[in-house]
Amino acid sequence: MGDVAGLVLAAGEGRRFGGPKAPVVIDGERLVDRAIRVLREGGCDPVYVVLGAWSGDVPDAVRVANPDWAEGMGSSLRAGLASVAPLGGVDRVIVTLVDLPGLTGEAVARLVASPARIAQASYDGERGHPVLLGREHFEGVSSAAQGDRGARDYLRAHADEVILVEVGDVASGEDLDVPL
Asked: Which of 31, 32, 56, 93 lies 20 to 30 Å from 42, alpha-carbon distance?
């Protein structure tokens, strides 16, 4: 186990998409499996996946059930951080969304390699996912995560501490909101 865990938020029902995104297959791979693989390629170990609306098998990751998934992404972030928090060897976590087909292991590795305690991927200067959180931020992020708002409000409140890690040359931060 390394000092950086991975956390995939995959509990949503995908209203705009027409169904849960985690099991959707793109280029022969489910989005949930791709997210796990990309986090592992980037140096995250262990990897946790928060599930809710869809709750299938997720090999090579720890499943976290979020019974409150319908409340929004905030509840999934809280559930995921609560699962990672007791891990003694984990000092930071990389949080990503399941619906980022353009995210790469190289982009994750840049965040992992950063000495930052709170960082955000940047795509040509635009803030995006994934987000890196040091253990000292878990509680504050969990408190701020409400409804469909994950870490956004906390990151905004701590903007002077957030390090932007440019990954636009090796990844795309666009999420999948409608079927391809």
From this structure: 56
Beta bridge partners of 10: 51
Query: What pLDDT was estimated at residue 136?
Result: 96
Q: Which residues contact 72 (CB under 8 A, 6 or more apart)?
A: 146, 147, 148, 149
pLDDT(147) > 90: no
> What strands lie across the sheet with 62-65, from one edge to the other?
62-65, 47-51, 4-10, 92-97, 126-134, 118-123, 163-166
Burial of residue 27 (number of CB atoms within 10 Å: 0-12, 13-18, 19+): exposed
d(CA 137, CA 160): 14
Element of type H or E holding 120: strand 118-123
| Mean pLDDT along residues 11-29 | 90
CATH hierarchy code of domain 4-166: 3.90.550.10
Instruction: Tell me the three state secondary structure of residue 97.
Output: strand
